[in-house]
Every structure is written in structure tokens, then in C-alpha cells.
Amino acid sequence: MAQYGFGSPVKGEFGAVVERVTQALKQEGFGVLTTIDVAATLKAKLGQDMPPYLILGACNPSFASQALRAEPDIGLLLPCNVVVRQTEGGEVIVGFMDPEAVLGMVNKPEVTTLGHQVRTALQRVDASLRA
């Protein structure tokens, strides 16, 4: 994965993996605020076909509240995006935005610490999907 994210392949059918991701996020206090169906959008707007690709906008209200108190404009960097995508070969990949990398741009110690905490929570979600 790129410097701004982490993740791994997850066994299972696409829809089932999306459900597992949603439940694993919930276990860590995150809810999915938005779901963007990139494949459907590209098909509708450009007539392009691609394998399933969803962007889930995940938010942990406690972490978000702390971040907003520390830096009111941090909403520009929220929510934490989680990508569930299927490769041409049928493998399902789950990727997580690295909040430590993204929130590190703010350059405030309390936000940097929070980015580490959020990253740790999302890493637990990632690990649970591979278990």
C-alpha cells in the first residue's frame, strides 16, 4: 500500500466482505457515514465498467470530537476513508486511509497523538478481517 494507507486482501465474496468491514469498524466505535459506489458512478457518468469499488466514510464520534476541539478545520481531513475493492482477478482488497499520515499534516502534538490512536484502532479492524 501507499504511504498514506494500509490494508490487505480479505477472503470472501465482495458483499460479505463489506458487511464484515462494517461490523469490524463498529466493534472499534466507528460508524459508516457515507458509502460511495465508485464503480456505479463511473458506469453511470462515463459508461466505464470496472470491478466493484466502494469508499466507506468511517467516523468514530469520540475521536472526531477530540480532533475538532484541537483543530476546527480538521473536518477537511475527515472521515477516515476505507476502500473495499475487487481486483480484475476477483480478489477483494480492503484498504484504510492512514490517519497518522493524514493528521500529521496538521502539525499539532495533540492531533498527531490522536492520529496514532485512530491508526491503532483501524489496524485492529484490519487484523480482525484477516483472522
TrEMBL record:
Domain named DUF302: residues: 36-99
Superkingdom to which the source organism belongs: Bacteria
InterPro entries, A to Z: DUF302, TT1751-like_sf, UCP021774
Protein known as: DUF302 domain-containing protein
Organism in which the protein naturally occurs: Thiomonas delicata
